[in-house]
Amino acid sequence: MPLYEFQCKKCNETFTKKMSVKEMEKEKVLCPKCKSEDVKKVISGFYSVTSKKS
Ligand SMILES: [Zn+2]
């Protein structure tokens, strides 16, 4: 599952969220700090996350 990076436009908090493209479409991404929906996706290249396939 890809890891997305977001930045809150209100408090400037950056956070990452692991979600599928489908989840991305139907789920609102909230800032974990101020709970604002006003977040933008930050494209910052690929993360090398070692994930176990289960
Ligand atoms: Zn925020």
Give structural notes:
- Helix content is 11%, strand content 28%.
- The protein is of the alpha+beta class.
- The protein has one domain.
- The radius of gyration is 12 Å and the shape is globular.
- The mean pLDDT is 85.
- The site of zinc ion has 8 residues, from loops.
Instruction: Write down the overall mean pLDDT.
Output: 85
Largest sheet: 3 strands, antiparallel
User: How many domains make up the 3D coordinates?
Assistant: 1
**Annotation field: number of helices:** 1
* Helix and strand sequence: EEHE
- Strand order in space, largest sheet: 2-1-3
Ligand types: zinc ion
Q: Tally the beta strands.
A: 3
Rg value: 12 Å
The shape, in one word, is globular
Low-confidence stretches: none
What amount of the residues lies in strands?
A: 25-35%
Tell me the structural class.
Answer: alpha+beta
As a percent range, the share of helical residues equals 10-25%
Q: How many angstroms does the end-to-end distance come to?
A: 12 Å
Quick rundown:
Helices cover 11% and strands 28% of the residues. It is built from 1 helix and 3 strands; from the N terminus they run ββαβ. The structure holds zinc ion.
Short descriptors:
alpha+beta; binds zinc ion; globular; 54 residues; 1 helix; three-stranded antiparallel sheet
Record the SSE blueprint.
Elements: E1 3-8, E2 14-18, H1 21-26, E3 39-42
The protein binds zinc ion.
The site of zinc ion (ZN) has 8 residues, from loops.
